[in-house]
Amino acid sequence: MTTYKLLLLPGDGIGTEIMAEVKTVIDWFGKRGVASFESEQDLAGGAAYDAHGKAISEATMKLAQESDAVIFGAVGGPKWDSVPYDVRPEAALLRLRKDLELFANLRPAICYPALADASSLKRELVEGLDILIVRELTGGVYFGSPKEIVTLENGQKRAVDTQLYTTSEIERIARVAFDLAKTRSSRVASAEKRNVMKSGVLWNQVVTKVGKEEYPDVALEHVLADNCAMQLVRRPKQYDVIVCDNLFGDILSDVAAMLTGSLGMLPSAALGAPDAVTGRRKSMYEPVHGSAPDIAGKGISNPIAMIASFAMALRYSFGLVEEADLLDRAISSVLSKGLRTGDIYTEGTQKVGTKEMGAAILKELDLLSA
Ligand code: NAD
Ligand code: IPM
Ligand code: MN
């Protein structure tokens, strides 16, 4: 039986609450006997800053490099609003993504049947929704240099962020999107702003070329990113796979989250390139949401995005597709039985806390696998 090394980084705020729940799910799959999981837990974000003065320590980075997958909660919060920029909690996440070269971020927005009324959109617009946002994660304005605030001679300040993409960075994320589209409905929408950004022009050209030369059977559509945001709330089911840069992907995935009922529902997988020899890829799994300071410590956060992120780990890092399907089914089934955390609560359903939701998913796993 294969043993996988997991590094658990709960982070801050609700990160610790949702990690406690996914841990019980990891243990459940460990006991099932299809693979074994060796988990180590460490600090990241504000918690690491408080302990070491850095958002992530070198020792933790080493553990991340050596792990088969990092399971990440969430970082940040008002407590660290005034810490120096380079050591702010969010820097932990960015360093993990960059150093592990996790360039491909898969953010599926699936509206579970039971949640069609929890969305802010009308039921008929979101029922059956299944979109996959493929976000480029290690380039663009997040990492381009220069990135600075300089004081000018006249005393004014000037802030600079640099949006930067190379051909190969766009090619590799485009291939990920096209490959995934082939396993779905063979449609890709590429979102950029070629009307105002040079990086948008290049993005458009490169995605078009990769599509034409390597994926002639996949239908490719180009959409301006602002229009894409509008279309997502107008008629979201027109999309299957959406590929976009780092910043647009961040924003579009939060928009897509609300189509499914809540930001607390959206999982994600951040993947590197497969190793040339072993075929294994570095990976990190994290919910799309943040540390939710407004509800942290109350025991009411939704653990589903975190637990569904582990389902993505089963699928994409460990090749345990049946187990991944089982976990997804358990989540869907608990929702069908009417259990809801506050963020997805609608009249007539049963409101539960983080722990109850985690426990219900475990119980459902027992039932479905009996
Ligand atoms: P957020 O995602 O933390 O919260 C936005 C809203 O969604 C809040 O009202 C929150 O209560 C709600 N929400 C989010 N997740 C939820 C869940 N699981 N269950 C129920 N409700 C949930 O975004 P924010 O408030 O803009 O950011 C707070 C902090 O989190 C910031 O420091 C930000 O930088 C950080 N952040 C971290 C990550 C990450 O670690 N991956 C992602 C996004 C934001
Ligand atoms: C996300 C978050 C991060 C991002 C922040 C916390 C750095 O918003 O994962 O969506 O902007 O990528
Ligand atoms: Mn975000």
UniProtKB/TrEMBL annotation:
<keyword id="KW-0460">Magnesium</keyword>
<keyword id="KW-0464">Manganese</keyword>
<comment type="pathway">
    <text>Amino-acid biosynthesis; L-leucine biosynthesis; L-leucine from 3-methyl-2-oxobutanoate: step 3/4.</text>
</comment>
<dbReference type="InterPro" id="IPR004429">
    <property type="entry name" value="Isopropylmalate_DH"/>
</dbReference>
<keyword id="KW-0479">Metal-binding</keyword>
<comment type="function">
    <text>Catalyzes the oxidation of 3-carboxy-2-hydroxy-4-methylpentanoate (3-isopropylmalate) to 3-carboxy-4-methyl-2-oxopentanoate. The product decarboxylates to 4-methyl-2 oxopentanoate.</text>
</comment>
<keyword id="KW-0432">Leucine biosynthesis</keyword>
<dbReference type="GO" id="GO:0003862">
    <property type="term" value="F:3-isopropylmalate dehydrogenase activity"/>
</dbReference>
<dbReference type="InterPro" id="IPR024084">
    <property type="entry name" value="IsoPropMal-DH-like_dom"/>
</dbReference>
<feature type="binding site">
    <location>
        <position position="226"/>
    </location>
    <ligand>
        <name>Mg(2+)</name>
    </ligand>
</feature>
<feature type="binding site">
    <location>
        <position position="135"/>
    </location>
    <ligand>
        <name>substrate</name>
    </ligand>
</feature>
<feature type="binding site">
    <location>
        <position position="226"/>
    </location>
    <ligand>
        <name>substrate</name>
    </ligand>
</feature>
<dbReference type="GO" id="GO:0051287">
    <property type="term" value="F:NAD binding"/>
</dbReference>
<feature type="domain" description="Isopropylmalate dehydrogenase-like">
    <location>
        <begin position="5"/>
        <end position="361"/>
    </location>
</feature>
<feature type="binding site">
    <location>
        <position position="250"/>
    </location>
    <ligand>
        <name>Mg(2+)</name>
    </ligand>
</feature>
<keyword id="KW-0028">Amino-acid biosynthesis</keyword>
<feature type="site" description="Important for catalysis">
    <location>
        <position position="142"/>
    </location>
</feature>
<keyword id="KW-0963">Cytoplasm</keyword>
<feature type="binding site">
    <location>
        <position position="107"/>
    </location>
    <ligand>
        <name>substrate</name>
    </ligand>
</feature>
<comment type="similarity">
    <text>Belongs to the isocitrate and isopropylmalate dehydrogenases family. LeuB type 1 subfamily.</text>
</comment>
<dbReference type="GO" id="GO:0005829">
    <property type="term" value="C:cytosol"/>
</dbReference>
<dbReference type="InterPro" id="IPR019818">
    <property type="entry name" value="IsoCit/isopropylmalate_DH_CS"/>
</dbReference>
<feature type="binding site">
    <location>
        <position position="254"/>
    </location>
    <ligand>
        <name>Mg(2+)</name>
    </ligand>
</feature>
<dbReference type="Pfam" id="PF00180">
    <property type="entry name" value="Iso_dh"/>
</dbReference>
<keyword id="KW-0560">Oxidoreductase</keyword>
<feature type="binding site">
    <location>
        <position position="97"/>
    </location>
    <ligand>
        <name>substrate</name>
    </ligand>
</feature>
<feature type="binding site">
    <location>
        <begin position="77"/>
        <end position="90"/>
    </location>
    <ligand>
        <name>NAD(+)</name>
    </ligand>
</feature>
<protein>
    <recommendedName>
        <fullName>3-isopropylmalate dehydrogenase</fullName>
        <ecNumber>1.1.1.85</ecNumber>
    </recommendedName>
</protein>
<keyword id="KW-0520">NAD</keyword>
<feature type="site" description="Important for catalysis">
    <location>
        <position position="193"/>
    </location>
</feature>
<dbReference type="GO" id="GO:0009098">
    <property type="term" value="P:L-leucine biosynthetic process"/>
</dbReference>
<comment type="subunit">
    <text>Homodimer.</text>
</comment>
<dbReference type="GO" id="GO:0000287">
    <property type="term" value="F:magnesium ion binding"/>
</dbReference>
<keyword id="KW-0100">Branched-chain amino acid biosynthesis</keyword>
